[in-house]
C-alpha cells in the first residue's frame, strides 16, 4: 500500500479529473439527508455526512436490469450487452466498501461468476472516505469499520489535508496528475492516529458487543422472541432496499402484448416479502413474519458467516433508521444481552428469572 498526502483544497480538482473519463457518483444533500447520486459538478458533493439513505449498491446491482431480449418468432435471443459506464463511486465510507467486498464474494468469487455484475464492477473505481459514526453505526462490532481492500483510493481526513491510501495504478495516475501530492510526514502519521482514536471513542457504547451472536442464534432458534419480532414486521421491504449487502433478486419475463417478443429482467427481491419463499402450487416455506424476519437476521448474522467467514451485516445502521417497526440487528443484540442478564440472575438463585422479568 502506498500512502500520500494532499491538501483538502485539491479535492475538487481530483473529482474534476475523475469526471473527465468517468461518471462520478458521490454523496449529495437532499433536504436533511444525503444520497449517492451522479454529479455534474464537484460543487454538488457534500462529504460531511454520516450515512446516506441508501448505499451505492444500485450502481453495481441495479434495482431492475434486462438480462436478455428474446424473439419467439425467430427463436433467437439477444444476449444482454451491458452498456457499461466507466464510473467512480466517490466518498464511500468503510462500511460501504466492506459491503461491496461482500457483494464481490457473492457475484464474483463463486463457481458461477455473474457477468452483469462483473462488467460493472470492473468499470468502477472506488474512492473511500473516513467517517465519524452516529448513534446507529455498529460497523466496529463486525470488523467493518476499516476498509482494508476493495477501493482504489482511500481518503483519511486530517482536517486541512487527506492521508491517501493508494491501491490502483489508474487512480494513482489521476491523483498524481490532478493534485499536489507529497510524502506523509511524522506529523501526518500522528494526526492520523489521533483521528483514528477519536473515531473509535465515538461509537455508541450502548450497542451491546456480542461476538458470539451467531452461536446464540442457533441456541435460541425456537425462542418466542422471533414470533414477537416477526409479528411487528410490515413486509414493507425497506430494510432490504437500503441494505448495502442485500443481494437477493427475482427473474421476471416481460412479454410484449402479441406474445412474440419479450425481455428477461432481474429485479431486487426481499426475504421479508410474503411471496419470497412461495413456490409453485402455493406452498410458502416462510408463511409468517416470524419465519421471514428470523431468516433475514440469520442470513445477516449467522448463515453468511458460516459460508464466507464474515458477517453479511456490515453494521451501517441504515435498516435501524428505515424500519418503522424497530426490527434490526441491534434489537437482536439487545435481546441476547437481556438473555445473558436473565441467565446470570438464574445462576445466582433466581431460577424463574423473576427479577429480570420485573426489571
Ligand atoms: S442489516 Fe442493517 S445494519 Fe446490517 S448492513 Fe444491512 S442495513 Fe446495514
Ligand atoms: S423488518 Fe422492518 S423494514 Fe423490513 S420489511 Fe419488516 S417492517 Fe419493513
From TrEMBL:
What Pfam families is this protein classified in? Fer4_22
What InterPro entries does UniProt report for this protein, alphabetically? 4Fe4S_Fe-S-bd, 4Fe4S_Fe_S_CS
4Fe-4S ferredoxin-type domain location = 222-254, 304-333
A GO molecular function annotation here is:
metal ion binding
The organism sits in which domain of life? Bacteria
Key words of the record: Iron, Iron-sulfur, Metal-binding
PANTHER family associated with the record: ANAEROBIC SULFITE REDUCTASE SUBUNIT A
Q: What is this protein called?
A: 4Fe-4S dicluster domain-containing protein
Instruction: Specify the species.
Output: Xiamenia xianingshaonis
Amino acid at each position: 500500500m502506498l500512502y500520500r498526502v494532499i491538501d483538502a483544497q485539491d479535492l475538487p480538482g481530483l473529482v474534476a479529473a475523475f469526471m473527465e473519463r468517468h461518471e462520478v457518483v458521490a454523496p449529495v444533500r437532499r433536504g436533511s439527508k444525503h444520497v449517492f447520486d451522479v454529479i455534474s459538478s464537484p460543487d454538488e458533493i457534500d462529504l460531511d455526512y454520516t450515512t446516506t439513505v441508501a448505499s451505492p449498491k444500485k450502481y453495481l446491482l441495479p434495482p431492475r436490469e434486462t438480462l436478455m431480449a428474446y424473439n419467439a418468432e425467430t427463436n433467437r435471443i439477444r444476449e444482454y450487452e451491458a452498456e457499461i459506464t466507466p464510473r467512480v463511486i466517490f466518498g464511500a465510507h468503510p462500511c460501504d466498501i466492506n459491503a461491496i467486498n461482500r457483494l464481490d464474494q457473492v457475484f464474483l468469487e463463486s463457481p458461477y461468476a455473474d457477468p452483469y455484475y462483473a462488467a460493472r464492477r470492473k468499470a468502477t473505481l472506488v474512492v473511500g472516505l473516513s467517517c465519524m459514526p452516529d448513534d446507529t453505526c455498529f460497523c466496529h462490532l463486525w470488523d467493518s469499520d476499516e476498509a482494508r481492500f476493495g477501493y482504489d483510493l482511500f481518503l483519511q481526513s486530517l482536517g486541512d489535508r487527506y492521508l491517501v491510501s493508494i491501491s490502483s495504478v489508474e487512480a494513482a495516475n489521476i491523483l498524481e496528475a490532478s493534485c499536489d501530492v507529497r510524502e506523509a510526514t511524522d506529523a501526518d502519521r500522528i494526526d492520523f492516529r489521533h483521528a483514528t482514536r477519536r473515531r473509535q471513542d465515538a461509537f455508541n457504547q450502548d450497542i451491546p458487543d456480542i461476538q458470539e451472536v451467531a452461536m446464540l442464534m442457533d441456541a435460541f432458534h425456537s425462542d418466542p422472541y422471533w414470533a414477537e419480532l416477526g409479528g411487528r414486521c410490515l413486509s414493507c421491504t425497506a430494510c432490504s432496499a437500503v441494505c448495502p449487502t442485500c443481494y437477493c433478486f427475482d427473474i421476471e419475463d416481460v412479454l410484449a402484448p402479441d406474445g412474440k417478443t419479450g425481455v428477461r429482467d432481474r429485479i431486487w427481491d426481499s426475504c421479508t416479502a410474503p411471496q419470497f419463499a412461495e413456490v409453485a402450487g402455493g406452498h410458502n416455506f416462510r408463511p409468517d413474519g416470524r419465519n421471514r424476519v428470523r431468516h433475514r437476521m440469520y442470513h445477516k448474522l449467522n448463515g453468511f458467516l458460516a459460508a464466507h467467514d464474515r458477517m453479511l451485516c456490515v453494521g451501517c445502521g441504515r435498516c435501524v433508521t428505515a424500519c418503522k417497526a424497530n426490527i434490526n440487528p441491534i434489537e437482536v443484540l439487545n435481546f441476547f444481552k437481556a438473555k445473558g442478564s436473565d441467565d446470570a440472575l438464574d445462576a445466582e438463585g433466581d431460577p424463574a428469572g423473576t427479577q429480570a422479568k420485573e426489571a
